[in-house]
From TrEMBL:
Gene3D superfamilies: 3.30.420.40. The chain crosses the membrane at residues 267-289. The keyword Transmembrane applies. Keywords: Membrane, Transmembrane, Transmembrane helix. The keyword Transferase does not apply. It comes from the Bacteria. This is DUF7159 domain-containing protein. Residues 3-244 form the DUF7159 domain. It comes from Rhodococcus xishaensis.
Length: 317
């Protein structure tokens, strides 16, 4: 029996997606999704320990697991490589996060006819907006901000009554205004790059919040697509990019409680979480209201497409 394990490593959570090894291209089925809160841990150490537990369990049962981990930058890739090897894990693949995300999205039927995707990735630590050429998978332009983080926002400040005035005027609690202003970043990136997006794809746990979706829908003149289990997009893509299992050079070992102030329990790793749990703490950024009205703005007509089935993918190193 074999499986593939994909991992994404954020500042707030380590996300894990395990799938039966597809053996060929095909839609992922029976996905098991898990989240582990980072707390005071180094995210890379937490991810490595969790992977070590999964592989140790698989080795004891005679199973094999192909592992792929999405990284945000070269520094994180190096930290993950070192942490995994300290756990005795040597057979794994590291892939750029944007590659994992793209691999997860390319076979979504709702995006099949789209040429340029605007990825609106709203996580607990900030917002990243990227323009991606679907035909090549290349990132045309990208902007990241942590000016306002999800942990700084109170969901109680968001009230659907405030949304009624947004098509005419940005008003209401600061969070609502910041969500509305963040929409203009798509237009700004389009202006800078000369690439006009055909669709906005919502990613990240923050996009579970209905207020985020409502505000963006009201300000969007182009379709909005919400990825399925949006906080697990990168982890699912990573699973689908997992390298073939080779003969391990070292047996993964179970983490020792003497090496860390707190170890990841098997219950934490084995316990699947509900993929649709909303991260109501939303991370957004406010930008000027200049360019972007052709794509987002008070005069825009909203267009929304609901989530469909997961996409599938393949794999570079």
């Amino acid at each position: 029996m074999s499986a593939v394990l994909g991992v994404s490593v954020g500042t707030g959570f380590v996300r894990m997606v395990q799938l039966p090894d597809p053996g060929r291209l095909g839609a992922p089925v029976r996905a098991e999704r898990r989240s582990i809160a980072v707390d005071t841990w180094a995210p890379e150490e937490l991810a490595a320990e969790a992977v070590g537990i999964v592989l140790a369990d698989a080795a004891e049962s005679g199973s094999t697991v192909r592992v792929s981990i999405a990284y945000s930058d070269e520094a994180q890739a190096a930290a993950l490589d070192a942490a995994l090897r300290r756990q005795g894990v040597t057979n794994f693949r590291l892939v750029p996060e944007h590659t994992a995300v793209f691999e997860r999205l390319i076979q979504d039927e709702r995006l099949a006819t789209r040429r340029t995707l605007a990825l609106y990735d709203l996580g607990s630590s900030g917002l990243t907006v990227s323009l991606v050429d679907r035909s090549t998978g290349s990132v045309v332009a990208s902007e990241r901000s942590t000016r306002l983080r999800g942990s700084d926002l109170n969901a109680d400040d968001l009230n659907t009554d405030d949304l009624r005035t947004l098509p005419l005027e940005i008003s209401g609690p600061p969070a609502i205004a910041l969500i509305a202003e963040s929409a203009d970043l798509v237009g700004e990136l389009a202006d800078q790059s000369g690439s006009v997006p055909d669709v906005v794809v919502l990613l990240g746990g923050g996009t579970h919040a209905p207020e985020v979706r409502s505000v963006l829908q009201q300000r969007s003149a182009i379709p909005i697509v919400v990825a399925e289990a949006p906080e697990f997009t990168a982890a699912t893509g990573a699973a689908l990019l997992a390298a073939p299992v080779g003969k391990p050079t070292a047996k993964p070992r179970r983490p020792s409680r003497t090496t860390r102030p707190r170890s990841v329990s098997r219950l934490q790793v084995a316990g699947a979480v509900v993929a649709g749990v909303a991260l109501v703490a939303i991370a957004v950024i406010g930008f000027g209201l200049g360019y972007g009205r052709a794509y987002f703005g008070p005069e825009a007509v909203a267009s929304t497409e609901e989530p469909a089935q997961p996409a599938v993918d393949s794999a570079p190193r």
